[in-house]
UniProtKB/TrEMBL annotation:
<dbReference type="Pfam" id="PF03195">
    <property type="entry name" value="LOB"/>
</dbReference>
<comment type="similarity">
    <text>Belongs to the LOB domain-containing protein family.</text>
</comment>
<feature type="domain" description="LOB">
    <location>
        <begin position="1"/>
        <end position="51"/>
    </location>
</feature>
<protein>
    <recommendedName>
        <fullName>LOB domain-containing protein</fullName>
    </recommendedName>
</protein>
<dbReference type="InterPro" id="IPR004883">
    <property type="entry name" value="LOB"/>
</dbReference>
Length: 79
């Protein structure tokens, strides 16, 4: 299979990829490297939501430091 590559300079990279996929399959017989990809996606989503939360908290802190109330408190007072 590696001999059939059109670009011979990619053989080492292809061999390393096959080795990694085989190692993942040994560690996780059902999902293989897809399990790793799924876990990375979950981690990415968690980091994204944590960043969003930190940004929201920073905005609230900035509004409070300017003497303004957080947006939710303003909405509650209007009701």
């Amino acid at each position: 299979m590696l001999k059939e590559l059109i670009m011979p300079h990619l053989r080492a990279e292809a061999a390393e990829t096959l080795r990694y996929e085989a190692q993942c399959r040994i560690q996780d017989l059902i999902y293989g490297c897809i399990g790793v990809i799924s876990q990375l996606y979950i981690n990415k989503y968690k980091i994204y939501t944590e960043c969003q939360l930190a940004e929201t908290r920073a905005e609230i802190a900035l509004m409070n430091s300017d003497g303004q109330e957080p947006p939710q408190a303003q909405v509650d007072q209007q009701i």
